[in-house]
Amino acid sequence: MSTPRLLAQLEECLHKVLPDARLAPCSLPGLPELQLWLLDPVNLDRAFASEETRRLLEQPPYWGFCWGSGVALARWVLDNPQQVRGRRVLDFGSGSGVVALACSAVGASRSIACDLDQGAQLASALNAELNGLPIELADDYFAVTGELDLILAADVLYDSDNRPFLERFRQRADSVLIADSRVRDLQHPGYHRLGHLHGQTWPELGEPVEFRQVALYQSLP
């Protein structure tokens, strides 16, 4: 599908929440290798009406932001290409697709952006075209076929319904990497903390400074 058509479909999704908003290709702080179509920061520099706030809370266009944990995990991938090159990887809850794109950029043999939200799938496809990188799209984790070597996920632990996936990931792939800015002390027998990363959400949301410190967890053998 062509870029203009993808962009039109994605902005149609956005306008259901913010009718006058637009997307713009953005460079990312700390991640100059990639660009993403994200909410134009101009759209956020105003007060929102109560109805807009309600829609934002009910249907947040989260794929219109590149969240700090995604930035941090993508940066880690680009800085550690040997951990990804030639491997079959899946980016769970991919949103904008930034982690899947980073994996493709360093030579993953298969990079899957998996997200059940239609807007996220459109965003990942549009961002893949913007960067000239091949990725696959999936809307159902359980429908993905074939072997996986590595599963990555950024900012998925805030939702308690996602916690059971921690064990499912370990059963599915040889290795799992979880980046999270809200959960800094994950208590799970199958994971250990590798360290802390830095990542800033873009466009800027005025998040507390502590949310720019991202914990990185890796599955145990």
UniProtKB/TrEMBL annotation:
Pfam families: PrmA. It comes from the Bacteria. One of its GO terms (biological process) is methylation. Gene3D superfamilies: Vaccinia Virus protein VP39. The keyword Methyltransferase applies. Keywords: Methyltransferase, Transferase. InterPro entries: Ribosomal_L11_MeTrfase_PrmA, SAM-dependent_MTases_sf. One of its GO terms (molecular function) is protein-lysine N-methyltransferase activity. PANTHER family: ELECTRON TRANSFER FLAVOPROTEIN BETA SUBUNIT LYSINE METHYLTRANSFERASE. This is Predicted nicotinamide N-methyase. It comes from Halopseudomonas formosensis.
